[in-house]
C-alpha cells in the first residue's frame, strides 16, 4: 500500500472517530452538576443532555469517585445521593446512555461532576451508596426512599420514620431536623436526636453568686451532671410509647458540657438576682444575649439565678404550654431539689398544672411532681401519702377521693389505711375532711400526666397575642432546706 493510500485510510478513520464522538450524548456548553446539601445526604440536579436527532437518552448514570452507584430514567434530572462517607469529600459525576447504547462518559463534554463532604458528626447515611428519588410526600426534607417506616433508626439512609408523617414520633420536631439538622444550622443529630424516639431539648444558663453569705457560701447554680442524670432518668423511664417500640423520652440537655453542647453558659451578673420574672425585661435580655435564635421552637430555656423578682422566695416560675422557665433555689440547690424543680417547671411548659388538668393543689391522690405534696420529696410509691423520692409525673392510676365521704380503709390505693381525720383511729365509717386544705370539700381526681404532656408546646410558645400563662411557685419548704 502506498504512502498516499495509508494517509488516506488514516484520515478516513480519524473522520469516522470524530463523527462517532460527535454522535455521542454531550452536555451543553457550561453545564454544571448542582448540589444541595442535606447533611449526610445531598441532592444533585443536572440539565438535559444533547443527543443526535435519530436517538434518545435512555438513562443517566451516577458515579461516586469513579464507581457507578445508580442509573435513573431518562425523565429524571435529580436524585438524592445516599451512603457518602462522613467528613470525606467525594466526587459525584453524571453521564448518560443513548438508544444506540453510546455512553457519554468517555468524552469530556459528556460528563459533569461536583464534590460534596457530609458532616463528620451524626450517624451518617450508611455505606451502601445509591441515588434515590427526591419525592418527599410529607415535606420533612427526607426523601421517601430513606423513610423506611418501621423498626429502629439506623442512619440518614434508613430512618425508620414514616414518609407520610413529618413528625413521626410526635415530639414537635420534624423528622428531617432530627436526622439532617435544621436549615438554620442546629446540629440535632450530633446531640442524639432521633425521628422515631421522642426528644426533649433543654438549655440551661446560670448565675454564680454570693448573695446570702450568712446562709450559704459563694456558690454556682450551674447544673451538675448528677442533677441532669436525675432529670434524664425521669423522662427516659416515662411510660410513653415510641414508633421504634421503646418507651420513654430522650433528654437533650445543654449545660455547656462540650462537644455539640456549647449553648449552656455562665451569665455574668453582679448580684445573682434578676428584676422581674419569666418574660420580664431582665429575663428577656439575658435570653436574647445567650440563647441562639436557631434553637427557638425546639429548646426549652432554663434560667437559673439565685432569686428572681429580686427578693422572691419562689422556687421557680414557668410558662404553661410554653418554653421558658426559671429555677431559683437560692441556697438550697441540691441535685434532688434542682432536678425535681426542673421537671416540675418543665411540666408547666408541657401543659400540666398543679392538679394535672386543674389548678387544685395538694391532692394526695394526684401522684405527680407537679403536686406541691410531691415536688421536693418525689412521688409516693407505697400508698402511704408521704413522698418516697421517685421523680415522675402521674400515670392517673389512683381512684378519686370524695372529701365529703372518705373511707380510711381504702386509703389512696391498694387498700392501705390512711387516717384522714388524724384522730389516730382508722374509722370504719366515712369521714368528711378537707384533705388538701384548700378551704372546701370536693371530689379530688388523679390525672394521667404522661398521657397528656404536650411535647410540641415549645413550637407554639408565645403564639397567643397575650403570650402564654405564667405560674409562680412556692418557696423551698423547710423540709427541703438541707
Instruction: Work out the radius of gyration.
Output: 32 Å
Q: Which structural class do you get from the secondary structure elements?
A: alpha+beta
Portion of residues in helices? 10-25%
Number of strands: 18
CATH class of the domain at 197-351 and 453-482: Alpha Beta
Low-confidence stretches: 1-21
CATH architecture of the domain at 197-351 and 453-482: 3-Layer(aba) Sandwich
Strand content: 15-25%
N-to-C terminal Cα separation, in Å? 110 Å
Largest sheet, if any? 6 strands, mixed
Tell me the number of helical segments per DSSP (H or I, 4 or more residues long): 7
The mean pLDDT is 94
Give the CATH topology of the domain at 197-351 and 453-482.
Collagenase (Catalytic Domain)
**Strands of the biggest beta sheet: in what spatial order?**
12-9-13-15-14-18
Series of H and E elements: HEEEEEEEEHEEEHEHEEEHEEHHE
What is the 3D form?
elongated
Write the layout of secondary structure elements.
Layout: H1 3-23, E1 34-38, E2 41-45, E3 57-64, E4 67-73, E5 78-82, E6 90-98, E7 112-116, E8 130-132, H2 175-180, E9 199-206, E10 208-209, E11 219-220, H3 225-236, E12 250-254, H4 281-290, E13 299-304, E14 316-320, E15 324-327, H5 335-349, E16 401-402, E17 443-444, H6 449-452, H7 457-460, E18 469-472
Parallel strand pairs: 9-12, 9-13, 13-15
Antiparallel strand pairs: 1-2, 2-5, 3-4, 3-6, 5-8, 6-7, 10-11, 14-15, 14-18, 16-17
Characterization of this structure:
The chain has helices at residues 3-23, 175-180, 225-236, 281-290, 335-349, 449-452, 457-460; strands spanning 34-38, 41-45, 57-64, 67-73, 78-82, 90-98, 112-116, 130-132, 199-206, 208-209, 219-220, 250-254, 299-304, 316-320, 324-327, 401-402, 443-444, 469-472. It is elongated and about 105 Å long. Among the domains are: 25-132, Immunoglobulin-like (Sandwich); 197-351 and 453-482, Collagenase (Catalytic Domain), CATH 3.40.390. It has 482 residues and is an alpha+beta fold.
Amino acid at each position: 500500500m502506498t504512502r498516499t493510500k495509508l494517509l488516506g485510510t488514516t484520515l478516513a478513520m480519524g473522520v469516522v472517530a470524530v463523527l462517532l464522538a460527535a454522535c455521542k450524548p454531550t452536555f451543553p456548553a457550561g453545564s454544571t452538576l448542582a448540589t444541595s446539601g442535606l447533611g449526610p445526604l445531598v441532592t444533585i440536579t443536572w440539565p438535559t443532555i444533547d443527543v443526535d436527532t435519530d436517538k434518545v437518552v435512555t438513562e443517566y448514570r451516577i458515579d461516586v469517585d469513579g464507581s457507578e452507584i445508580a442509573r435513573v430514567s431518562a425523565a429524571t434530572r435529580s436524585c438524592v445521593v445516599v451512603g457518602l462517607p462522613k467528613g470525606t469529600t467525594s466526587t459525584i459525576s453524571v453521564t448518560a446512555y443513548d438508544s444506540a447504547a453510546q455512553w457519554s462518559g468517555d468524552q469530556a463534554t459528556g460528563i459533569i461532576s461536583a464534590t460534596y463532604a457530609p458532616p463528620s458528626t451524626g450517624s451518617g447515611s450508611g455505606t451502601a451508596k445509591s441515588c434515590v428519588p427526591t419525592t418527599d410526600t410529607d415535606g420533612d426534607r427526607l426523601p421517601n426512599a430513606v423513610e423506611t417506616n418501621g423498626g429502629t433508626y439506623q442512619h440518614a439512609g434508613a430512618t425508620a420514620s414514616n414518609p407520610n408523617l413529618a413528625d413521626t414520633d410526635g415530639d414537635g420536631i420534624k423528622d428531617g431536623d432530627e436526622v439532617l439538622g435544621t436549615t438554620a444550622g442546629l446540629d440535632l443529630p450530633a446531640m442524639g436526636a432521633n425521628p422515631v424516639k421522642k426528644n426533649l431539648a433543654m438549655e440551661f444558663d446560670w448565675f454564680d453568686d454570693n448573695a446570702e453569705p450568712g446562709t450559704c457560701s459563694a456558690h454556682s447554680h450551674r447544673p451538675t451532671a448528677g442533677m441532669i442524670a436525675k432529670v434524664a432518668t425521669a423522662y427516659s423511664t416515662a411510660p410513653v410509647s415510641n414508633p421504634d417500640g421503646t418507651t420513654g423520652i430522650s433528654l437533650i440537655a445543654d449545660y455547656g458540657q462540650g462537644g455539640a453542647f456549647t449553648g449552656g453558659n455562665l451569665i455574668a451578673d453582679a448580684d445573682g438576682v434578676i428584676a422581674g420574672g419569666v418574660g420580664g425585661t431582665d429575663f428577656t435580655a439575658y435570653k436574647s444575649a445567650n440563647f441562639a435564635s436557631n434553637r427557638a421552637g425546639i429548646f426549652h430555656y432554663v434560667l437559673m439565678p439565685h432569686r428572681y423578682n429580686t427578693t422572691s422566695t419562689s422556687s421557680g416560675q414557668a410558662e404553661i404550654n410554653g418554653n421558658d422557665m426559671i429555677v431559683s433555689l437560692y441556697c438550697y440547690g441540691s441535685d434532688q431539689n434542682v432536678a425535681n424543680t426542673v421537671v416540675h417547671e418543665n411540666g408547666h411548659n408541657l401543659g400540666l398544672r398543679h392538679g394535672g388538668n386543674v389548678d387544685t393543689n395538694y391532692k394526695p391522690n394526684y401522684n405527680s411532681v407537679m403536686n406541691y405534696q410531691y415536688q421536693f420529696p418525689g412521688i409516693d410509691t407505697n400508698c402511704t401519702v408521704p413522698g418516697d423520692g421517685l421523680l415522675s409525673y402521674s400515670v392517673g392510676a389512683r381512684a378519686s377521693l370524695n372529701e365529703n365521704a372518705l373511707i380510711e380503709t381504702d386509703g389512696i390505693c391498694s387498700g392501705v389505711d390512711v387516717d384522714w381525720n388524724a384522730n389516730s383511729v382508722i374509722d370504719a365509717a366515712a369521714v368528711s375532711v378537707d384533705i388538701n386544705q384548700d378551704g372546701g370539700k370536693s371530689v379530688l381526681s388523679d390525672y394521667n400526666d404522661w398521657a397528656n404532656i404536650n411535647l410540641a408546646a415549645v413550637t407554639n410558645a408565645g403564639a397567643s397575642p397575650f403570650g402564654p400563662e405564667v405560674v409562680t411557685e412556692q418557696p423551698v419548704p423547710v423540709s427541703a432546706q438541707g
